[in-house]
Amino acid sequence: METKIRNGILPFAIVTFIYFIVGFLTTINEQLQAPLKFVFLAEAGSFKNTFTTLISFFFFLGYLLNGTLASKWVNAIGYKNTIIRGLLFMISGLLMYLCSSWFGDQYPHLAMHFGKAVLPYGFVIFVLGSYLMGTAAAVIQVVVNPYVASYELPGTQPVQRLNITTAINSIGTTSAPFFVTVVMFSGISIADIEIKQLMWPLIALIGCVVLVALITRKLHLPDIANTRAAAGEKLERSIWSFRHFALGVLAIFFYVGTEVSIGANINLHAFELMDSGHPITFFGKTDIIIGGVDLGIHALLSTLYWGGFLVGRAISSFFSNISAKTQLATTAILSAILAIVAMMTQNLWFLVAIGLLHSTMWSCIFSLAIKGLNKYTSKASGVFISAVFGGAVFTLVQGGLADAFGSWRWTWTLTVICELLMLSYALFGSRIRAKDLIN
Fold first, then answer.
1. Main-chain dihedrals φ then ψ at residue 152, nearest 5 degrees
2. How far, in Å, CA of 23 to CA of 306, rounded?
3. Cα separation of 54 and 198, whole Å?
4. What is the pLDDT along the chain (439 residues), one digit of tens a residue?
5. CB of 422 closer than 8 Å to CB of 361
6. Given its phi and psi angles, is residue 193 left (phi above 0), alpha (psi -120 to 50 degrees) or beta?
7. 3-class SS of residue 176
8. Closest CA to 121 of 132, 135, 107
9. What residue spans define the domains of the chain?
C-alpha cells in the first residue's frame, strides 16, 4: 500500500518541480526589465517604458503563437515528451540571454535608430530570447495544467491540486526578484549595473535546466486516460462551441493581463515615485540592507507581490469545501477595491496586497473552464494557454499609457477593468449549458 502511494505522488511532484522552474524564470524575465532599461535604453527618449515592456510582450507572444502547437504535441507524443521539448526551448532562451549579455558588453554601440530613439542590438537579442522563454513556459504549462487537474491524488479535488502546484510555482516567482538583485547584480545600485554581470548566473541557470531535462528524460511520467484524443481520432466538436470554456479563455486573458502587469511594472512605478521625491518605505525605512547589500525597495515590492501568491495558494490548497466560483468572485471584488485605493493614495503596497487575492484565480478559472470536457481537455489546455498572451498586451499597453500620461499612477485602471470582467465570468460565464456536458 505504501509503495502505491509513493509511486502515485512522484509524477505529481516531478511535474510540480518543473512548474517551479517556469515560475522562477518567468519572474526573472520580468525583473530584468528595470535593469535592462538602464543598461540598454538610456538613449530611447520618450519610448523608454514602451521599449522596456517589449520584454514581457515577446515573452507572452510565445504563449499566443505556440500554445495550440503544444497541445498538438501532447496528443501526438504524450505529456512527458512535450515537457522535454519545453525544457529544450527554455535552454535555447537562456542561451539567447547569454548572447545578449556578451553582445551588449562587446558591441554596446551597435543599435537601430528610430528618430531620436536608439535601440541596441543587444536588447533586441534579449527580446528574442524572451520569446523563446515564453514558448518554453507555454509548452510546459500546456502539460502541467491538465495533468495536475486530472491526476488522481487521493483526498484532493482539481482546484486543490492546481493550488498546490501553483503554490510551488510561487516559491519560484517569490525568490526570483532577489535572485536578480543579489545574485545577478550583487545588490549594487541600478544605475551602476553592467550587462556582463548576467553572464555567469546565466551559465549556471543553463546548467541547471540541462540537468533537469536529462533527469526528466529518464523518469516515468504515466499518461492520464481520457484527457487527450487518441492517435488519429477526430474530435466531433469545435472546442469553441463550449461556452463556459470560450468565456474562460477570455477571463484568463484579462486575469494574466493584470497579474503580469502588476508584477512586471510595479517596480517601474516605484522608481518613478522615488525619482519624483516620493520615497517608498517599509516599516519606516527607505532601503533594505542585509549583510551590507542593499536589496532595494523595488525588489521587495515584487517579491512580496509574488509572495502573496505563495501564501494565498498554500492557504487555499486546504479549501476543499469552497467552490472555485465563490473563490473567484470574492477575490475579484476585493482586488478591484485595492487597485482603486492604490491609485487614489499612490500607495503601492495596496497593489502588492492584490498578489494574495490573485493567487487562486488561475486555478479557479482553469478548473471552471475545462470542467466536463474529457477528451477535449488537452486541446482546450493549448488554447487556454494561448490566452496568457494577455500578459503581453496589458503590460505593453500600460507602458504606452505611462509614456502618454507621463506617469504610471492612473494606468492601474486597467487592473480594475480586468477584475470586474473576471467577476462577471465567475457569476455568469462559468455556467455550463446542458448541451456542453460530455459523457
1. -85, 95
2. 10
3. 19
4. 333 333 467 778 888 889 999 989 988 887 888 788 888 887 877 788 788 888 888 998 888 888 888 888 887 888 889 999 999 999 999 999 999 999 988 988 888 888 778 888 999 999 999 999 999 998 998 888 778 877 777 667 777 787 788 888 888 877 887 788 778 877 676 667 788 888 999 999 999 999 989 988 887 777 666 666 555 566 677 888 889 899 999 999 999 999 989 988 888 888 777 777 666 655 455 554 444 444 456 667 877 888 888 888 878 777 767 888 999 999 999 999 999 999 998 888 899 999 999 988 988 998 899 887 877 777 787 788 888 888 888 888 998 898 888 888 899 999 999 999 999 999 998 888 877 666 5
5. yes
6. beta
7. helix
8. 107
9. 2-436
245: cell is 470554456
Q: Please give the full DSSP string across 260-308, using - where no structure is assigned.
A: HHHHHHHHHHHHHHHHTT----BTTBS--EETTEE--HHHHHHHHHHHH
Q: Both ends of the chain: CA-CA distance in Å?
A: 32
Contact (CB, 8 A) for 348 and 418: no
Decide if 245 contacts 334 (C-beta within 8 A): no
What are the C-alpha distances in Å from 198 to residues 204, 205, 230?
Answer: 10, 11, 45
287: number of Cβ within 10 Å: 12
Those residues with Cβ within 8 angstroms of residue 25's Cβ, 6 or more apart along the chain or in another chain: 90, 94, 133, 137, 172, 176, 205
Question: Which grid coordinates belong to 233?
Answer: 481520432
Q: Tell me, what amino acid is at 45?
A: G
Indicate the pairing of strand 289-290 with strand 117-120. unpaired
Looking at CATH, the fold of the domain delimited by 2-436 is given as Growth Hormone; Chain: A; (1.20.1250)
- The grid coordinates listed for 95 are 542561451
Cα-flanking dihedrals φ and ψ of residue 119, to 5°?
A: -125, 105
The residue whose grid cell reads 532599461 is 37
- Determine the residue type at 363: S
Whole-prediction pTM = 0.74
- SS3 for 364-416 is HHHHHHCCCCHHHHHHHHHHHHHHHHHHHHHHHHHHHHHHHHCCCHHHHHHHH
Residue 270 has, within 13 A of its CA and on its CB side, a CA count of 26
Alpha carbon of residue 275 to chain centroid: 28
